[in-house]
Design brief:
Layout lengths: L11 E6 L9 H11 L5 E4 L9 H13 L4 E7 L5 H13 L4 E5 L16 H11 L3 E6 L10 H14 L3 E4 L5 H13 L6 E5 L5 H11 L5 H10 L3 H21 L4 E5 L4 H11 L6
Parallel strand pairs: 1-2, 1-8, 2-3, 3-4, 4-5, 5-6, 6-7, 7-8
This protein binds flavin-adenine dinucleotide (FAD).
Flavin-adenine dinucleotide binds next to strand 3, strand 4, helix 4 and helix 5.
């Protein structure tokens, strides 16, 4: 099923998982998926390291398992930077073969050891390429606080509109910790003529390192209320985890109350955290 159809009838709940490191025990991801299945998400997306990273085959394998073994709608991430059109065509062929119907079409973060070459500079080019060459539901990424590389928020929205005009029928946001950024983003998107369903990306922050990494990569603002939590509990992992879960639930309750199209939970492969959040919101997300 194309996940864009889900929004017609409900507030969509999706999860994001990532392939385990090559050195990690492979079975852990399948334990994670089994646990996440019990939470009855509408879809699970699987990340893919940019520039043909080593986990490309793993992304395909896990995305296929999500669909064919666990019976959950699957979304394969596809960062195009460094890839040729021929390589993307081959990935599309493999995704089709596995029955995967949804692609999160991305440029990808630029790794420092990025190989030169590749036929794509920006995600809108990938969206166009997929639309012209295959039949997939195409999802695109967006940043409520603006992408760190963009000159201005307005410029960023104009680039987002190019992705939608090229064929993206659904959006998923970068994580944010202050819902006001999301609401302002929604207003700007509508003014720019963007009218596709948008899932709010929520990352439950359960350790200090992960938030430091995300701030560095995505430039997300840290509200005072959030920083107080980090400062108070940074040396108490269980308390920080519980406070991080409560903070995410608070964000989600507000978003659903305001009529958000969907919630995309960055599960970080932690079913316990996803489970606690789902318990708290199960009566809010209904068909
Ligand atoms: P683009 O849309 O290309 O935008 C990148 C920058 O270029 C922006 O500043 C934009 O304003 C500008 N821009 C866009 N189009 C043009 C244009 N035509 N001309 C000039 N400037 C332009 N990364 C991974 O590597 N693997 C993953 O699995 C992954 N999953 C993600 C999942 C989600 C939900 C999100 C939100 C992000 C994910 N990312 C992933 C990170 C993403 O790849 C980065 O945010 C990346 O820096 C930008 O990707 P994009 O698709 O938004 O790029």
């Amino acid at each position: 099923m194309k996940t864009s159809d889900l929004f017609k009838t409900k507030t969509v709940l999706s999860f994001e998982v990532f392939p385990p490191k090559p050195t990690a025990d492979e079975s852990t991801i399948y334990d994670t998926l089994s646990a996440l299945k019990g939470l009855r998400p509408d879809a699970i997306s699987v990340t893919y390291g940019a520039a043909g990273g080593k986990n490309c085959a793993k992304t395909l394998e896990i995305a296929s398992a999500v669909k064919n073994r666990y019976g959950i709608e699957s979304v394969a991430h596809l960062p195009c930077i460094g890839l040729s059109k021929a390589e993307v065509s081959e990935i599309l062929r493999q995704l089709k073969q596995e029955g995967i119907e949804n692609i999160l079409a991305l440029r990808g973060d630029l790794p420092q050891d990025m190989p030169s070459g590749g036929d794509f500079n920006h995600a809108n080019e990938l969206v166009s390429f997929i639309r012209e060459n295959a039949d997939f539901n195409i999802i695109a990424a967006c940043c409520p606080e603006g992408h760190p590389e963009s000159g201005s928020i307005i410029e960023d929205i104009q680039h987002l509109k190019r992705k939608v005009d090229a064929g993206a029928s659904q959006l998923i946001t970068q994580l944010f910790l202050d819902n006001d950024y999301f609401y302002k983003f929604q207003e700007r998107a509508v003014l720019a003529g963007i009218h596709v369903p948008t899932e709010a990306g929520i990352m439950p922050v359960t350790n200090k390192k992960s938030i430091e990494r995300m701030v560095q990569m995505c430039g997300v603002q840290l509200p005072k209320k959030f920083m107080k939590i980090i400062e108070k509990y940074e040396h108490d992992p269980e308390a920080l985890r519980d406070a991080g879960i409560a903070y995410a639930v608070d964000q989600i309750v507000d978003l659903i109350t305001q009529g958000v199209d969907g919630i995309h939970l960055y599960t970080m492969n932690k079913p316990y955290v996803a489970q606690k959040i789902c318990e708290s919101i199960k009566n809010l997300i209904k068909a």
